Structure formats: structure tokens, C-alpha cells
Amino acid sequence: MTSAVVTRFAPSPTGYLHIGGARTALFNWLYARGRGGKFLLRIEDTDRERSTPEATAAILKGLDWLGLDHDGEPISQHARADRHREVALELLDAGKAYKCFSTQEEIQAFRDAAKEEGRSTLFQSPWRDADPSTYPDAPYVVRLKTATEGTTVIEDEVQGTVKIRNDQLDDMILLRSDGSPVYMLAVVVDDYDMGVTHVIRGDDHLNNAARQMGIYTAMGWPLPVYAHIPLIHGPDGKKLSKRHGALGVEEYQAMGYPAAGMRNYLARLGWSHGDDEFFSDEQAKEWFDLKGIGKSPARLDFKKLENLCGQHIAATDDAALLAEIEAFFSATNQPALTPEKKELFKNALFCLKDRAKTFPELIDKAAFVFADRPIVPDEKAAKNLDTVSRGILSELTPHLQNASWTREALEEVLNQFAEARELKFGKMAGPLRAALAGRSVSPSVFDMMIVLGREETLARFNDAANG
User: Fold this and answer.
1) Which CATH number fits domain 379-465: 1.10.10.350, 3.90.1300.10, 3.30.420.40, 1.10.287.130?
2) Which sites bind ATP (predicted)?
3) Distances (CA, A) of 403 to 347, 397, 408
4) Which runs of consecutive H residues, i.e. helices, occur in 9-164?
5) What is the helix (H) or strand (E) element at residue 227, kind and residue range?
């Protein structure tokens, strides 16, 4: 028994996975996964000159990072050319397509004359109803016989009812003169053969739908449900381009955005569920529907993206967060963590993950974990290590030798020490941060002491006191 809902993502492997493509993939994935359906992947590699294995690998890598798993093996459109040709010949045999022997020069002459006479320049082939006995021994294309009267009506889940007059549609080519099938035919045959029930794609394909529907109708195949989603624009409302910043999904991974935050943000880009901004994958799968997609282009907003990513970092389980940060190190060609640093880092995540919007921010806060003794303070922190401060550190160390190493106990020891010397704790915090992290801004002193443990903490205090 086949699943009720089947969606697909069908990128062309001519470059990286574009942020707009990633959102299209996400919408298809959410729609299928939320309904117990299938999400399929098809690589539209019919453009042999521009399609590359490297681009295919980049697309697969991008989907993998985003966590958008697909069912079955990716399908190559190019590998199915024989099947596409078979359908075109079937339409030819049924009289629903025809051989057109018009040359490029003849087509151009027709258009020039039509333009001069103020008629439609849409090519009308003289071979549409020609007697086969008049066929010359010459190259030909196979064209679909498109209805010449009435309208084609697209019932679109996002755009609503879209009507296109049939006299505005030409008899589109199905097979080129070398016998190769065109992309428009391939898409329809593949969607039908793959059992795709819902075609969710960019609204730049809306006009294609009208032409593709002609093939479905001619073959007597049921139409899929169409949902043409608006494109993504930059913050200035113009079509997204390099000037707006990152376009490829791998760039976002390299900038250190967590995949869960990226999924959440992309889901909200053009789709809404009430006032909900922050949500989990499970909620997104449960809530996502086509009616919630807006008709107007969504605008990329880096502040919103960072805000959501910060919330996801804070909400992520430590082990999962560590695994994703390790993947970030690998993706940005940074050295892997040693087992010791990895353990220390994992133990520190509780005091790092609040208020960090990206992995580089979080890693920066973890400077005290990655630093090795002797800690070299930065310029600002070094000012907190004057002679008086070094004396305080020297005096404090014996009080911590036998203290119970819990936050409460450490707070008590340090506060009592400060009171006895009539110091405000804030006055002590600067030297303690400088000694532990070499920074003037760091996580809480107590959190750092807990993470580093007694031995390392006292060693860092001693180093700073004697520096």
C-alpha cells in the first residue's frame, strides 16, 4: 500500500544548495513527515553542460546538515531519458502530439511577420494537422497538441485559482530534433512515476504548471496538488542575491548557525502558525500546512535568524549540542577537540549555551576551557592583575584547598573572604576572571571553577598570583 502523501525536492545540480531551495525542501519534508508520507529527492541533471557531481554532493551535504532525510535513493532525471522519450512517442501515436519540421529560420520568420501585423508571436506550427504523407525526410521535433480554446485553470493551494487562456500557450516541444526529451516533459513523467501527490515549489514555476498540466491531461494522468510558494527576498525587499550576504546553506553552517534554528527560521519564512515563532521539529511537522503559506515574498532577517538560533542552542541537549559543534569544527577545517578538552567543554555547556546565538559566540565564551596554562591575559584582563590583586589571589588559595567544590560552598567561601577584607565581591571578580580565563568578560566565576575543578582552578590562581 502506498503512502497517501508523496512530496519531492528536485534541485538542479549546477551549484550549492541555495537558501531558497533549502526552504522548498523543508516545506516538502514537513508536509510529508507530518502526514506519515514520503519525501523523495530527484536530481534534475538534464542540463549536462552545467550539472556536476560536485554540485550534487554539495546539495546532498546541505540537506544532510539541515537534517532533511529523504526516502529511498536520489533519482537522476538524466538516467530516465528513455522513459521520458517513451511517453512522448506514446502521445505521438495517440495523435496528441505531432512531428514539427519547421526550421529555426521559419519560426523566426513567422514571429517577425506576426509582430509586424500586430498578431500574437506565439508560434503556430503548420505541421500540427498535416498529413503524414507530406512529411519530408528532415529533422523534426515532437510537439504537444495544446488546446487552442478555453482556459487552463490551476487550483493552487497558495496562489488560489489561476487562469491562463489556452491561446497564450504554444504547442510546446517534448522531444528535440536529436530525440532528447525536454525538461518540462521529464518533470511530469518523473512526478507521475514517483507517485508525487503534492508539488510544492517556487512560484517562478507557476507558468510551467499550466504547460505541464497539458501533458497530464493528454496522458489521462491525475494532477498533483500544486502549491507555488513565493520566493525569498533580501531585507530590502529585492530578489535575494550575493549582495544580501550568504546564499548557500553551507555558508550558514560555516557561520555557526545550529541546524535546528535554521529549520525553525526557514519554516517561519513565508509560513506562519498563529503567533508562534520558536518551535520544535515535532511541532513544525504537526502544524505545517499549505494554507499557512503567504502569497507575498518573505524577507530574510538575520536578527530573527540569530534570535531563534540562540533559543535553539539554549534548548538543545548537551550531548547533541556537542556533536553539532564538533561537526562545525570539521566543516570549518578547525582541529578536532582532544578527549580531555571535549569532556571539559561538554561539562561547561550549561554555562555557555544561554545567550549564545551562534557556535563561534559560544566557543568564544568557552575560552577558559580551551586555554592552557599558563593563562596569558588579554590587555583588558591584565589590568585587573595588579600587585594588590595578585596578593588577594595568593591569600585566597589556601581557603579553597579544603572547600567543598559545590557552587554554594564556593560562593560562601569567596563571599566570607571578601567580607573579612571589606571588599565588594565585584572588586574580586575581575582578577578571578583574569586568572581563570584571561578575559575581562567570561561566564560566572563560580561556573568556571566548577567546570575546571579544584586542581586546575588553584593552579591558575597560583600562576596569576606569581606572574
Assistant:
1) 1.10.10.350
2) 242
3) 20, 10, 11
4) 19-33, 53-66, 81-93, 104-116
5) strand 225-229
pLDDT band at residue 50 using 50, 70 and 90 as cut-offs: confident
**pLDDT of 169 above 50:** yes
Top CATH class, 79-229: alpha beta
Show Cβ contacts of residue 271 under 8 Å, excluding neighbours closer than 6 positions.
27, 288, 292, 293, 294
242 assigned binding-site residue: yes
User: Torsion-angle region of residue 258: left (phi > 0), alpha (psi -120 to 50) or beta?
Assistant: beta
Q: pLDDT digit string (tens) for 109-131?
A: 999 999 999 999 999 999 999 99
How far apart, in Å, are the Cα atoms of 135 and each of 90, 100, 128, 142?
19, 9, 12, 13
Q: Is 291 a catalytic residue?
A: no
Give residue-wise pLDDT tens across range 343-368. 999 999 999 999 999 999 999 999 99
Residue from 61, 242, 291, 365 carrying the catalytic annotation: 242
Alpha carbons 195 and 212: distance in angstroms, whole number: 16
CB 207 within 8 A of CB 164: yes
Q: Where residue 3 falls among pLDDT bands split at 50, 70, 90? A: low
Taking the C-alpha atoms of residue 394 and residue 388, their distance in angstroms, rounded to an integer, is: 10
Give the start-to-end residue ranges of the domains of the chain: 79-229, 379-465
pLDDT at 192 over 90: yes
